[in-house]
Design brief:
Rossmann fold; alpha/beta; 347 residues; binds 6-O-phosphono-beta-D-fructofuranose
Length: 347
């Protein structure tokens, strides 16, 4: 770069629900951009809100140090969707404002770290002429076009640890323990933690369950002198309005079996705290890959991991889709053979 040339300016924002590993991704983008390519890095506050309100700061190397191991996001996040139609006639044209601010901030590229909703917004921004790169993150692991998102591995550890702890208290009291885990409309976290935690019943949004089959399976376990049972429920299963999945399943089991049943709703604990080593590595690899694309002036892409390899796909292929658990999932097939009940047929 000649002295009169202005450094390439890369903006980073984090949007949607937070998850462990976001700071590792910010660091991966920032350090690669600064140290390898001599770029300038701008941290945009609170997702797309920061672009609307022009809230940002230059991120130097020092600000990127010491954040690898920390959960949450140093930039803050929001669920702001600038493309959502507002009912008010007085509403501002947010996409137009974002385009204007992108220019005023002197951005040459924008890295959007987020889940499905963020990728959809990022695709619209790319369509509007901005140089956008997406990095997929979420504990739900439901982003289309990548085998895995960072955040999932950390959440899986937390959820599995919680299930492990329920085993001992369930055994002491000879109870059925229902645990509701996050995942939005996808069952990845429930499936993986259900198997890792030795769940006896695992209920997923993707598998149509029958509560009578669940009750029959749990009664059979009691008759066979199994002292307790663990039921892992994804938050996204169909349940009556106003009642959480865990509460609904626990109430139904109690009514149908007469067995003592308790529920635990794990909630936001699942996405808080430090990232696992695997998430730190994945987030770092995604961050570095995003900057490599920017350095090659390749835009409108989301970095991904397919078959163990880091690559990228057009971001407009991602938005609006959901990666759910397939009925042909090999883990489901194996678990069924080992007696795990998914509520759709008797094991
Ligand atoms: O980040 C994904 C997720 O954790 C989902 O599993 C959950 O349904 C949702 O976010 C809830 O987040 P919030 O209350 O922040 O919208």
């Amino acid at each position: 770069m000649s002295p009169e040339e202005k450094p390439y300016r890369v903006g980073i924002l984090t949007a949607g629900g937070d998850c462990p590993g976001i700071n590792a991704a910010i660091r991966g983008v920032g350090k690669t951009a600064i140290l390898e390519y001599g770029m300038e890095v701008i941290g945009i506050s609170s997702g797309f809100l920061g672009l609307i309100n022009q809230e940002y700061d230059i991120l130097d190397e020092n600000q990127l140090s010491g954040i690898l191991t920390i959960g949450g996001t140093i930039l803050g996040t929001s669920r702001e969707n600038p493309f959502k139609k507002s009912a008010s006639l007085l509403s501002i044209d947010k996409p137009k404002l974002i385009k204007k601010h992108y220019k005023e901030m002197g951005l040459d590229a924008l890295v959007c770290i987020g889940g499905n909703g963020t990728m959809r917004t990022a695709a619209h921004l790319a369509e509007a002429g901005m140089n956008v790169i997406g990095i997929p993150k979420t504990i739900d692991n439901d982003v289309w076009g990548t085998d895995i998102t960072f955040g999932f591995d950390s959440a899986l550890s937390i959820t599995t640890d919680a299930i492990d702890r329920l085993h001992t208290t369930a055994n002491s009291h000879k109870r059925i323990m229902v645990i509701e885990v996050m995942g939005h409309h996808a069952g990845w976290l429930a499936l993986y933690s259900g198997i890792a935690g030795g769940g006896d019943v695992v209920l997923l949004p993707e598998v149509k369950f029958n509560i009578d089959i669940v009750a029959k399976c749990l009664k059979k376990r009691a008759i066979n002198k199994k002292p307790y049972s663990i039921v892992v429920v994804a938050e996204g299963i169909p349940c009556p309005k106003g009642e959480s999945a865990g509460r609904f399943i626990a109430r139904s089991i109690k009514d149908k079996t007469g067995l003592e049943t308790r529920e635990t709703i794990l909630g936001y604990i699942q996405r808080g705290g430090d990232p696992s080593p695997m998430d730190r590595i994945l987030a770092t690899r995604f961050g570095a890959a995003a900057v490599e694309l920017i350095a090659k002036r390749k835009f409108g892409l989301m970095v991904n991991l397919i078959g163990g390899k880091i690559n990228s796909i057009p971001i407009d292929q991602v938005g609006g889709k959901l990666r759910t658990v397939g009925m042909d999932n090999s883990l489901i097939k194996k678990a069924r053979k080992m007696g795990v009940c998914f509520g759709d047929c008797e094991p």
